[in-house]
Design goal:
heterotrimer; A alpha/beta; B mainly alpha; C alpha/beta; A: 12 helices; 24% strand; B: MetI-like fold; elongated
Chain lengths: 273, 272, 255
């Protein structure tokens, strides 16, 4: 469904991202993991043509057979929101602080469909139920700042899935949230993906979260993919040193026996200190 | 050239300041030398700017007038900046109640038009330089305080201020040694703008007859003298007016240029 | 005897409205490492500011080394500051951007010991936390987050506090750097015999570093116990939910 070939993103001659090949099949959940500066965000921004103007992009990104690179903004606007949707970490980037959330959720529907106003209203309530927002009828008239972080994120997801995209790109959607909320958002994404066979590209620096959501994982470092494979393989039998270091740096919750053993011991670091 | 405004501002103010500096040592003619025969001569080779209604050389008058205008502007600005900044810092550093009191007081101060206050003060204290300085300062202090309070509060909310408190630094130390240096760009720009305003207000007050009294002269006073003769001797009005414009513009441009140069991040956020 | 304890503390930032800290009592034993965990709004960051004396509670007492906080504030405010030091979440924001690091590092000594530390003293602290003394001449923006946090630790340790309160010290750092800073924290603690109070939302970190864990939610202490108690056998519903969620979003691997 999505194929990235020979992608090169550079700025003023300096290469930031260089990917030979990365693909995702319909309905697949692909995790893109790496630290800040690894190029993972730039990569997904380039899919939707959202890179800053000063950056140069070469190569090919095809979606459902269509070549995306080189399309005009107008043409991409038809795809954004309808076929490929994106959810960001910072709700303040996606949510308009001066617009009621009911209206915002309905934006995509207004842009991409011919539904009547009342139909859209109804759909918005349905969508809010779908992302487990309590009391949608009351929330519809609220403004983003009146909602909690978790609620804001759900609103963003509702906006993103409103036109039933075949691919959802989520860039660090859970990073700033409490763990209990993170868990709920992840469950939500899994459910949505399974229900409508929606593909997900999940970008994060948190390997644990990526593991929970993805079927396949691509590990990025310095703009390149250093390892790619099924989740269990990457986590349990990594081959590349960087991947191993990344695994070591993501602490897991020890079980009872490990707890007593590990208490007060040093954390493993990538330099093996 | 990072800031063409700054360059232009420096050129303009440099021009004016040079003239002022020179005026302490030399003027082409005696500024108060009355010579009725030569009255109202248009600009010529011996009197570069012409003469006024009493035959006094206009250029020399303008040179000497600048001393007064700039002096008044300088003192008022210094008083305004020092007291206003201190007041603003105090307001930012005190609890919500005192902070609100000080802010309200400054609001009132700003709302009252400076000219009006000056006129009232002049009537009470008598006209002259001192009244003008007091009047202008009276307005500058709350204006500066207001400009300083917001950014000061922002800085106070930052973590390193909390860190300083854990290290045992007193509130006063934090306000003057940590907050002030971090808002210095704002204070500097504000000072420059106030200087420009000071020149304008002094000129206005002298124009109304409230400021400089003879034999002291100022640009505003020259303008006042020139009023009845505008049609006869336009140069008499235009030239002092031009100097006012040049110096106000010059200092404003310096303020503008500095605001971009000193802290480009902040000017984008609209703090200045 | 506990080195710091709190009795029935109630605190709120505004003069009315909900309490940020709602009747909290806890005690910290000397030389131990205690983790305070909770989600946003739990009050975990506020409680350490109350315990260290940075904030004053409207109701209840804080007892530090046997003396009430009020007595400390009146009689020996400087000693109070020397007793407990803080390290903050965002290293970049805890340094005055206009101060060179050498100066910043010497601030506690200048303020609390009323003397100016010489270059050797500052240099040895930098080496102690694994940084080159050359960096003392730099400004905060010239160092990475991890490096700054190390300077932060040096700064806090320089006046020899008995208690170190660390408020999410690694949350804003890159994952690969977090381990290094936490290891440094552990080292300093054992070397200097420090009592450590670590505030974190990360159960994995707290489980490894802290002998006791206090769980907070909405301004109250929900449960407390050893790391094994809390992470392996949580009793309170909230704690159970928290641990389960933390496990769900953290890495699980065969080895």
């Amino acid at each position: 469904m999505l194929e990235i070939n020979n992608l090169r993103i550079s700025i003023a001659g300096k290469t930031l991202v260089e990917i030979d090949h990365l693909s995702a099949t319909p309905g697949e959940r692909l995790g893109l993991v790496g630290e800040s500066g690894s190029g993972k965000t730039l990569t997904v921004l380039s899919i939707l043509g959202l890179l800053p103007e000063m950056m140069d992009v070469e190569g090919s990104i095809t979606f459902a057979g269509q070549e995306l690179l080189g399309k005009s903004d107008k043409e991409l606007a038809k795809i954004r929101g309808r076929d490929i949707a994106m959810v960001f970490q910072d709700p303040s980037r996606s949510l308009n602080p001066t617009m009621k959330i009911g209206r915002q959720i309905g934006e995509s529907l207004r842009l991409h469909t011919d539904l009547s106003k009342s139909d859209i209203k109804q759909k918005v309530i349905e969508l809010m139920h779908g992302v487990q927002l309590q009391d949608p009828e009351k929330l519809v008239t609220r403004y983003p700042h009146e909602l909690s972080g978790g609620q804001q994120q759900r609103v963003m997801i509702a906006m993103a899935i409103s036109c039933k995209p075949s691919l959802l790109i989520a860039d660090e959607p859970t990073t700033a949230l409490d763990v209990t909320v993170q868990q709920e958002i992840l469950k939500l994404l899994l459910r949505l993906s399974n229900e409508s066979n929606m593909g997900v590209i999940f970008v994060s620096h948190n390997l644990g979260v990526v593991q929970a959501v993805s079927e396949r994982i691509a590990v990025m470092h310095n703009g390149e993919i250093v390892e790619l494979g099924p989740t269990s393989q990457i986590i349990d039998s990594p081959t590349v040193a960087y991947t191993k270091a990344l695994i070591g740096a993501n602490p897991s919750i020890p079980n009872e026996q490990e707890l007593s053993r590990l208490l007060g011991t040093r954390f493993p670091t990538s330099r093996g200190e | 050239m990072k800031s063409p405004q700054l360059l232009l501002g420096i050129i303009l103010t440099g021009f004016v300041l040079t003239i002022t500096f020179v005026s302490f040592f030399w003027t082409p003619w005696d500024p108060i030398g009355i010579n009725v025969e030569d009255r109202l001569l248009p600009p010529n080779l011996s009197h570069w700017f012409g003469t006024d209604r009493l035959g006094r050389d206009l250029f020399s008058q303008i040179m000497v007038g600048s001393q007064n205008t700039l002096f008044v502007a300088l003192i008022s600005t210094i008083v305004g900046a020092v007291l206003g900044t201190s007041l603003g810092l105090a307001a930012a550093g005190s609890g919500p109640r005192w902070g609100a009191v000080i802010t309200r007081i400054s609001d009132i101060g700003i709302a009252l038009p400076s000219i009006l206050i000056a006129l009232v003060l002049a009537t009470t204290l008598g006209p002259g330089r001192l009244s003008v300085i007091i009047a202008i300062s009276f307005w500058f202090v709350p204006v500066t305080a207001r400009v300083v309070v917001g950014p000061a509060r922002q800085i106070l909310a930052l973590d390193f201020v909390e860190a300083a408190m854990t290290h045992g630094r007193s509130r006063r130390y934090i306000l003057f040694r940590q907050v002030l240096p971090n808002i210095a760009p704002i204070v500097i720009v504000q000072t420059s703008m106030m200087f420009a305003a000071g020149i304008l207000i002094e000129a206005s007050l002298s124009f109304l007859g409230v400021g400089a009294q003879p034999p002291t002269t100022s640009w505003g006073k020259i303008l006042m003298d020139s009023q009845p003769l505008v049609q006869q001797a336009p140069y008499y009005t235009i030239l002092p007016g031009a100097f006012i414009v040049i110096s106000v513009l010059g200092f404003n441009l310096i303020g503008d240029g500095l605001s971009v140069l000193l802290d480009p991040q902040q000017s984008k956020k609209g703090v200045v | 005897m506990p080195i710091v304890s709190a009795n029935n503390l109630k605190f709120r930032y505004a003069s009315s409205g909900p309490w940020t800290i709602n009747d909290v009592s806890l005690s910290i034993e000397s030389g131990t490492s205690v983790g305070i965990v909770g989600e946003s709004g739990s009050g975990k960051s506020t409680i350490i500011r109350l315990l260290s004396g940075l904030l004053k509670a409207q109701e209840g007492d804080v007892i530090i080394d046997g003396k009430n906080l009020d007595e400390w504030s009146k009689e020996a405010p400087r000693d109070l500051r020397r007793f407990g030091q803080l390290v903050f979440q965002s290293p970049r924001r805890s340094f005055d951007p206009r101060m060179r690091l050498g100066r910043a590092l010497s601030e506690p000594i200048r303020a609390l010991e009323k003397r100016k530390p010489n270059a050797e003293e500052l240099g040895s602290w930098m080496t102690r936390v694994g940084l080159s003394p050359e960096l003392l001449n730099r400004y905060p923006h010239q160092l990475s987050g991890g490096q700054l946090q190390r300077v932060s630790l040096a700064r806090a340790m320089s006046i020899g506090p008995q208690v170190l309160y660390a408020d999410e010290p690694t949350s804003s750092l890159d994952v690969s750097v977090q381990a290094q800073v936490l290891n440094l924290l552990m080292e300093l603690r054992t070397d200097l015999g420090l009592t450590l109070v670590l505030v974190s939302h990360d159960l994995a970190v707290v489980g490894r570093m802290c002998e006791r864990i206090i769980v907070m939610s909405r301004g109250c202490v929900v449960e407390e116990g050893t790391a094994v108690d809390i992470l392996a056998n949580p009793k309170h519903e909230y704690t159970k939910g928290l641990v389960e969620a933390a496990k769900a979003v953290s890495l699980k691997h065969a080895n």
